[in-house]
Amino acid sequence: MLHLASKSPRRRELLRMLGLEFGVLDLDIPELPAPAEPPEEYVRRVAREKAGAGLLRMSGQPDAVVLGADTEVVLDGRIYGKPVDAADAAAMLRSLSGRTHAVISALSMVSAGRELQAVSVSEVTFAAMSEDDIAVYLATGEWDGKAGAYAIQGMAQSFISHLSGSHSGVMGLPLHETASLLRGFGLFPARASASHDGPEPMR
Ligand SMILES: Cc1cn([C@H]2C[C@H](O)[C@@H](COP(=O)(O)OP(=O)(O)OP(=O)(O)O)O2)c(=O)[nH]c1=O
């Protein structure tokens, strides 16, 4: 049985699109880069820690397969995680304004004795944002809980002028790579008996 080790409603919605049945594990994994830790290594490490903690939680079930994911925004080698408050979000948006940044999403899929990993890197270009634009965006609240203080699945599309890469990857769960890992575990495509409620609206 597949379990998604994530509190993120976006990851749940995206994984549902692949038509599999899965459980959800609510875990709290500390997210803090080590000094001088390269961004991609950090994102991989956190995804692996989430999956590993999920597997530990499922230790009574030897056939459990657990998926963990992590997403960070990276600009000039600096990692932008989830903003702590609106002022932090404003500072992030000012830094991203008028520039192209990377969004790195890492996946780790584990079972007892096996791990597969994948990484999706996308490039996102922001148009220049005025202080007014930033204030309007902050008022939507969309930035809360999102790496880099924006959500590509929402109003942020009004200032994203270019995306090169994976839309689902920027949202937190790159579905092409997820499907590849699931194939590696013999879980994709889903058997016809798996129920599929269909995608729900993005938030
Ligand atoms: C850049 C971007 C990020 N995000 C979200 C995806 C992730 O949920 C979040 C990055 O934080 P993460 O730490 O990757 O994930 P999370 O804390 O939300 O959930 P969990 O650790 O329990 O799996 O930012 C968007 O929804 N849209 C975007 O455009």
General description of the model:
By secondary structure, this protein is an alpha/beta fold. The protein has 6 helices and 7 strands; from the N terminus they run E-H-E-H-E-E-H-E-E-H-E-H-H. Strands 1, 2, 3, 4, 5, 6 and 7 form a 7-stranded mixed β-sheet that branches. Helix 3 (86-96) crosses helix 4. The longest helix is centred in the N-terminal third of the chain and has 19 residues, at 39-57. It is elongated. It starts with a strand and ends in a 19-residue tail after the last helix. Residues 6-8, 10-11, 31, 50, 69-71, 73, 82, 103, 145-148, 150-153, 170-172 line the site of thymidine-5'-triphosphate. Its cofactor is a divalent metal cation. It comes from Lysobacter hankyongensis.
Q: What form results from the Cα inertia axes?
A: elongated
Class computed from helices, strands and strand pairing: alpha/beta
Q: DSSP helix count?
A: 6
Compressed to H and E, one letter per element, the order equals EHEHEEHEEHEHH
* Rg from alpha-carbon coordinates: 17 Å
Fraction of helical residues: 25-40%
Overall pLDDT level: 95
Largest sheet: 7 strands, mixed
Record field, number of beta strands:
7
Separation of the first and last Cα atoms? 27 Å
What is the beta-strand fraction? 25-35%
Question: Any ligands, ions or cofactors bound here, and which?
Answer: thymidine-5'-triphosphate
| Low-pLDDT sequence parts | none
Pfam family, one: Maf
Organism: Lysobacter hankyongensis
Active site: 70
Cofactor: a divalent metal cation
